[in-house]
Design goal:
The chain is about 30% helix and about 25% strand. The chain is an alpha/beta fold. The protein folds into two domains: about 180 residues, FAD/NAD(P)-binding domain; about 140 residues, D-Amino Acid Oxidase, subunit A, domain 2 (D-Amino Acid Oxidase, Chain A, domain 2). The N and C termini lie far apart (about 45 Å). The structure holds flavin-adenine dinucleotide. Flavin-adenine dinucleotide (FAD) binds next to α1, β12 and β16.
């Protein structure tokens, strides 16, 4: 079958990562198409939108920290550019984050995180429980101390997705609102995709940005298929009535009984409480247990939440990768690039991903900041694990 409607770039998946890739590619003069039955949907409809390079730092993830910080630095200009182009308010809020401890174990854990942050050259300040409550009077009296991180901001991911859709449309990106069923490979080169109705779209370069489904696309050779899996996250949304505002001034988070919980207050009055982390395949059921745990843990941090109307419960799928870092850029199959595996930092990593992929699409190479995230790193790992 012939490949009709050929573009320079075809992006499979129109979540925030596929959209930013398409937008930046089109800005560089490449004719670009996106295939997705529901572009602008995906995990961004669930995500909290913390831009948390510093408070999300984990042992063993220092390489990812470099990319996270690079993206955080781009956010002010990125958000301003999108808003100026589209008129969309992204809910970008430079309000900072307060990570608090409720008991002695949490306090030890937080002290360790503080030491790691300082060793990594990051700015964060240790506060007593009293100082934490001075900043956030709604905190529980039992808070034992906390870390103030003014550099960790937030954005509303739903608004971000809406603005990226508008920016793509303005830049002339063509949308095909259907599923890509299979990658088309011609003469050992990615050449487009087959759609659900059997028709085919051709492209000089294909970017696979299908989020947690990126490892599922038929036609992608096994050794190139990204090792991405779905990691379920449930969130609860409350609304702060005007008479209680400002309920919280910044994002508040903690580890309670080993589980992460955070409260993200938006200027709109929305308060997002998240998130569970569950390895349950494609399941996106909101469960009583998930909601119960989130509300129970959030209530220990901020008892006053029980007064607020509960407006939404939802579950989404993070695209997880073996090292919790994204897979970016060219693969071993000529013409096929990846932009996936952003796991719990996809909103934060949107600006740097767009820039890195546009660079790769126009030069064939990743910019330096993104090179450690080449998909080839997993291929190398597999090869070195083989017995001699
Ligand atoms: C509960 C939760 C909380 C989060 N909180 C944060 C946070 O605070 N900060 C942060 O930075 N990140 C956060 N994230 C992570 C972030 O939301 C994701 O990393 C990011 O949204 C992934 O975007 P994506 O475009 O790669 O994938 P997705 O959003 O999954 O989009 C993939 C798109 O591909 C489409 N698609 C899939 N298969 C095909 C196909 N075969 N053909 C056509 N289209 C296809 C889908 O329809 C979808 O629209 C959170 C995620 C969750 C679930």
């Amino acid at each position: 079958m012939s490949l009709s409607r050929t573009s320079d770039v075809l992006v499979i998946g129109g979540g925030i990562i596929g959209l930013v890739t398409a937008w930046r590619a089109a800005q560089r003069g490449l004719s670009t198409a996106v295939v997705d039955p529901e572009p602008g949907g995906g995990a961004a409809q669930v995500a909290a939108g913390m831009l948390a390079a510093v408070t999300e730092l984990h042992h063993g993830e220092q390489t990812l920290l470099g990319l996270n910080l690079a993206s955080a630095r781009r956010y002010p200009d990125f958000a301003a550019e999108l808003t100026e182009l589209t008129g969309h308010d992204l809910g970008y809020r430079r309000c900072g984050t307060l990570a608090v401890a409720l008991d002695a174990d949490d306090r030890t854990h937080l002290r360790e995180l503080h030491a790691l942050q300082r060793a990594s050259g990051l700015e964060s300040e240790w506060l007593s429980g009293r100082d934490c409550r001075r900043l956030e009077p709604m905190l529980a009296p039992g808070v034992r101390g906390g870390l103030r991180v003014d550099g960790d901001h937030q954005i509303d991911p739903r608004r971000l997705a809406g603005a990226l859709m508008a920016a793509c449309e303005q830049a002339g990106v063509v949308f095909h609102r259907t599923w890509a069923e299979r990658l088309v490979v011609r003469r050992d080169r990615a050449a487009g995709c087959e759609l659900r109705d059997g028709s085919r779209l051709g492209a000089r370069q294909v970017v696979l940005a299908a989020g947690s489904r990126s490892g599922q696309l038929a036609g992608v050779p096994d050794d190139v298929l990204p090792p991405v899996r779905p990691v379920k996250g449930q969130v609860v949304r409350l609304t702060v009535p005007k008479r209680y505002a400002p309920f919280l001034n910044r994002t508040v988070r903690a580890v309670v009984r080993g589980s992460q919980v955070y409260l993200v207050p938006r200027l709109s009055g929305e308060l997002v409480i998240g998130a569970t982390t569950e390895e349950l395949g494609w399941d996106t059921t909101v469960t009583a247990g998930g909601v119960y745990e989130l509300l129970r843990d959030a209530h220990e941090l901020v008892p006053g939440i029980t007064e607020l109307p509960l407006t939404e419960t939802r579950a989404g799928l993070r695209p997880g990768s073996p090292d919790n870092a994204p897979l970016l850029g060219p693969t071993e199959l000529p013409g096929l690039l990846l932009a996936t595996g952003h796991y719990r930092n996809g909103v934060l990593l949107t600006p740097v991903t767009g820039d890195a992929l546009a660079h790769a699409l126009t030069t064939g190479e990743l910019p330096e900041v993104a090179r450690p995230f080449t998909p080839r790193r997993f291929r190398t790992a597999v090869l070195t694990e083989l017995p001699a």
